[in-house]
Amino acid sequence: MLSAMPRRRATSRLAALVAGLALGMSFGSGCHGDRPARHDIPADGPLDPALEGVDDVVVRVMSQLCIGAGVLAIARDGEVVAARGYGFRDGPPSRECASRRDRFAGGATTLPDTPMRIGSVGKNIGAILVRRVLRDALAAEGLPADDAAIEALPLVGGPLRLLPPRIEETLLGPRAPAFATGGDCDARADPRWREVTIGHLLSHRAGLPGAGPDLLAGDRLQALRELWTREALAAEQAALMPPRRAIRQGPGRDGYFVAPPELAEGVLALGSTCLRSDPGARASYSNLGFDVLSLVAATVGGRLEVARGGDLESHDGSLLDAFLRDELGLAAGRASRHGISLSHPYLEARDPAEPRYRMWTPGRRTYYPEYDDPKRPYCILQGDGRCTFDEWRERGRPVNYAWERERLPLSYEWIGAPVSTGLLAAEAPVLLEIVGRYWLGRVMPGGHDDGAPFYGRSRALHQSPVNRQHGGNLAGATAWAGQFVGAPVDYAVVPLAAGSGRYDFAVATESARCTAIPAGVDVVVAFNQSYSQDCHLDGEVCGAAYDLWRSLLVEALCEVDWDRVGGES
Question: Could you tell me the residue range of the domain that residue 250 belongs to?
Fold first, then answer.
């Protein structure tokens, strides 16, 4: 039963008006006007009758936010009790959502096995991969190889070399950082790097900032690659696909195309980054930590962690491929090539089973923005020997590229940064099986986070006293995975706007606690959208909506009669 769970109620017209005036709008009264609370959205796949309320919430959320495609998978004690696909793989989910700028396409419907981008949910897969590699490496050296030993491994200066030599020498101090950033660690790396362990990285407690230095600022990439002569720059350019025509050279201008930044270069650049806190002192969510772990996995494992962007065949033999084959017996997905794989930025390399990703972009007034093709940045050699990327980065300036300047449907502005496990696409039932075997890294609201590095720990070997979760957001996709252990979970109460039957995300200020979801319930949900046309009126409310749908899902799970789930219908 629920503990202090308020009943769904409609907000008063006065309250809605006040909230609307304060925020500039009441989300849900967007440019299409009030729509029915539930559209006629196609849904496919098995569903336990006791979970119809959960299914209904997914359809209502997709109806209100006009999300094109979604998938849902639920298991109880390892038994799949729901595997659903919603909407269409292209365009809006219903005719009611269609507009002049978002025409209804219909066509191929979303299957339960349609692969979807999962954003940072992929960090949990990256954690599994690095644990597998380190376990094998420790065992090969005759060292303890359990999770405690893995988590205690120093990143640098330990019994295993986890990073390429140049990076390790930089972080340990004998070698100066590749470039300066104007901080206290320009001359030598922060000495606290010696204290960072794999466990710190796995628990977001390494002291890292949220993002690293911009590698395409000034001449940083030139410094990382030590391209200090015209001959070195020319050799770098020659290794790329030959351009159709050269950069137009003006008086005193000398330009060179180079390959985009790589993962190892992003980690090497951290040598001039001071840690924000002592390792282990406090948690601070950081994508950088998992970039480092990805490089550790590739370095120690001796092969790619996931496929190389744009290279379809490089999935085969990768660490991810080995995991899927060895652990899940999965040589191919049901709807996709591999079940889980890199969602390539470029359409020509992407798995055709993936949907068309959607993100409303106000400036371009489209769900399908296009960005400049960034595969080959270029630098202009200055009189002082510095080759800078400032001109290439200035997007509004007319540039004579070495190929026709064109915009590509990337669905997010990818500027050549390494994507690692943040850009995986997964079939929901495959991801659900992984969630059933390995713990997720984050704690659900209502539970205490003790700082233990649960990312990638085996559920067969470790117990979690709290419900665990992980969300993922990437332009054009949003996802969530949850593991319930019978502990209480808190969620936001999203009321209905009076008279419309629509969720009023702007006034979701109350919370409730649920104690009714039993242990052994695992959930995966993903959508092919991260921003809606309504949102251009108030991005803050829209951002809340794309988080609060998770609370709606938890509330629906809380209302399920779990004694009926898995029984005779």
Answer: 217-259+371-408
